[in-house]
Automatic annotation (TrEMBL):
Molecular function terms, GO-annotated: nucleotide binding; sarcosine oxidase activity
Localisation per UniProt entry: Cytoplasm
Protein name in UniProt: Sarcosine oxidase subunit beta
A GO CC term attached to the entry: cytoplasm
UniProt cross-references to SUPFAM superfamilies, sorted A to Z: FAD/NAD(P)-binding domain (SSF51905)
Transmembrane segments: none
Length: 416
């Protein structure tokens, strides 16, 4: 990857920025790759990156029907935390969070990781018990979280009203090294690094069919840019996982639902922590530009609409205003939606499939941005070795047959 001197930066300033190298190439697809990844969201790109970095596999294509990062990766509200209850989850989310700590240096690309702290408010006795339990579990798992009092919540978030009549704040689960990162930059950083290793990112190219050979293994994919043969296939398409699985001839225990978010006009800095109010289905953080980034629950019905709707603004703002009275005076700037892929136990699927050389990564639901580096790491290990490693092992499709669920409904809380 090219590095630029101070002289080059000055030169580009006078020649109107016409000489910069593209961050990633836009190649024509080759006839065959060792590995094809479907989906250039964060998880697909991170999978490709760690295939190259950790296992030296670089004859890889990442195929994207739109533009890279244009799915949920570029639509999410960027909360990063690893305060999950079960051991399998704590391990993969903490791996991801710790990779985020050094990701800008690793990719040589500023992903603007901001470990500003995340608080999940306890607003019912049930949540108090739940979060105390999570803090104890996290201590055993090597994840640093703490249960804090309502007074400490108020100290950390002065704009909060802890004495609401319906849902007073009783305390909170605090992860001081949780936070946010710039979502586009995560996709762009991984994409640039993949392209730099010689991988092909093929955008505006939809996978329309999955071909299997006489041995039952995948032999290639049909796309809107022609047939592409592959040695191994990775399906990493979030809300469209069911569609791809159907093309490949197997079924998934996944439901696709729209999840919406909104941002306000930029205002002066007023909150330097991420706050999630899971009982009322609302959460808020302040972006570096000053916008209040706000979200709530997923749509109450399955759908494939990538858009916002008025009822969501109304419901989310109504639920937040008791705890954050300042919300009533904010002007909203824009809203949007993404299609998330929900499993019944609110845990992801990182798994082999009924086809020998076909692997799937999905089911991150409303919470997969935080997992991108760890998920890519684990998926790359499974694809290179053909079998899941320690991080992915618990998340196989077999758990749905065996009834071995990884219940994360509390940790996934706010948007589910
Ligand atoms: P995507 O980024 O959706 O990538 C999948 C890609 O596959 C897409 O680009 C799509 O175009 C492509 N694709 C689909 N079908 C095909 C095909 N046939 N051929 C080729 N390409 C195809 N998570 C958090 O951790 N913290 C948050 O604060 C958070 N907030 C969220 C807020 C909202 C509003 C939404 C919608 C999600 C939020 N999430 C959050 C969840 C998070 O965004 C997702 O879990 C994560 O981005 C999933 O990444 P991905 O790479 O699997 O999927
Ligand atoms: O997973 O932390 C999360 C989250 C918050 C909002 C949507 N997802």
């Amino acid at each position: 990857m090219k590095r630029y001197s101070a002289f080059a930066i000055a030169r580009e300033a006078v020649r109107h920025h016409t000489g910069w190298e593209r961050a990633w190439r836009s190649p024509k697809p080759k006839d065959r790759y060792d590995v094809v990844i479907v989906g250039a969201g964060g998880h697909g790109l991170a999978t490709a990156y760690y295939l190259g970095k950790n296992y030296g596999i670089t004859n890889v294509a990442i195929i994207e029907k739109g533009w890279l990062g244009g799915g949920n990766t570029g639509r999410n509200t960027t909360i990063i935390r690893s305060n999950y209850l079960q051991d399998d989850s704590a391990a993969i989310y903490e791996k991801a969070r710790s990779l985020y700590e050094g990701l800008s240096q690793d990719l040589n690309y500023n992903v603007m990781f901001s470990p500003r702290g995340v608080i999940m408010l306890a607003q019912t006795e049930h949540e108090v018990r739940g979060y105390k339990r999570t803090a104890h579990a996290n201590a055993h798992q090597g994840v640093t979280t703490e249960y804090i009092t309502r007074e400490r919540v108020k100290e950390l978030v002065p704009i909060i009203n802890i004495d609401g009549p319906r849902y007073p704040v009783l305390g909170g689960l605090y992860q001081a090294r949780g936070g946010t990162a710039r979502h586009d930059a995560v996709a762009w950083g991984y994409a640039r690094a993949c392209s730099g290793m010689g991988m092909d990112i093929i955008q505006q190219c939809e996978v329309t069919g999955v071909e299997t050979g006489a041995d039952g293994n995948v032999s290639g994919v049909q796309t809107t840019k022609g047939r592409i043969a592959c040695g191994k296939l990775g399906i990493v398409v979030a809300g469209h996982s069911g569609v791809l699985a159907e093309m490949a001839g197997f079924r998934l225990p996944i439901e696709s639902v729209a999840l919406q978010a909104l941002v306000s006009e930029p205002i002066k800095p007023c909150m330097d922590v991420v706050v999630m109010a899971n009982t009322v289905h609302g959460y808020m953080s302040q972006s570096d530009k000053g916008e209040m980034v706000i979200g709530g629950g997923a749509d109450g019905y399955n759908n494939y609409t990538q858009r916002g709707s008025f009822h969501h603004i109304e419901e989310t703002v109504r639920s937040l205003v008791e705890t954050f009275p300042m919300v009533s005076r904010l002007k909203m700037l824009r809203q949007w939606g993404g299609i998330v892929d929900m499993t019944g136990d609110r845990s992801p699927i990182i798994s082999r499939t009924p086809l020998g050389n076909c692997f799937i990564n999905c089911g991150w639901g409303t919470g997969g941005f935080k997992a991108i580096p760890g998920s890519g790491w684990a998926m790359a290990e499974m694809m290179s070795k053909g079998t899941p490693g320690p991080l992915a092992k618990g998340f196989g499709l077999d758990r749905f047959r065996e009834g071995r669920f990884i219940d994360e409904s509390v940790a996934a809380g706010v948007a589910h």
